[in-house]
Every structure is written in structure tokens, then in C-alpha cells.
Amino acid sequence: MQVITVEDCRNLRERFMEFANRQEQHAFPFLAMINLRLDTTLEAIEKDGEVKNQKDINAMFRVVLRVMGEDYSAYKENLNE
Questions:
Q1: Residue 51 to residue 10: CA distance in whole angstroms
Q2: Closest C-alpha to 11, from 79, 70, 55
Q3: Cβ pair 47, 3 in contact under 8 A
Q4: Mean pLDDT of 26-49
Q5: Cα 79 from chain centroid?
């Protein structure tokens, strides 16, 4: 499991937006749902000034990276996952 910073979350959102902008229209509702969750989470951690719940944020990274077709193995909790 990685230790994730607020800046890491900002970078993930930026990468996700670039990914989403290249997708076909039929994917937009699903991607919009992920975008909403990303925005909500990013707003909360920016308000706190830090990532307090590393377990949940690692899970968010796994989901977003998997949707984007990228390697998410660094964000797994253990090797059996």
C-alpha cells in the first residue's frame, strides 16, 4: 500500500480527466460518476490539508487506475489481492 499525498490525488484527477476526454460518449455516464466521487474526495482532503484515511484513498486509486487501464498493483493492500 502506498502513502498518498494531496498532490498525488490532484495528479490522479488530472490524469483521469485527460483519459475521460478521450473516451467515447457511451462511457460518459460511468466516467461522470467517477469524476464526481474524485471531486468530492479531493475537496475533502484539500480541506483537511492531508490524506487521513490511506486505506480508502488507496482503494480509490485502485479503482480509478483500473478504469483507466493502468497498473494499480502498487496500491494493493497485500500481494494476495
A1: 12
A2: 70
A3: no
A4: 93
A5: 20
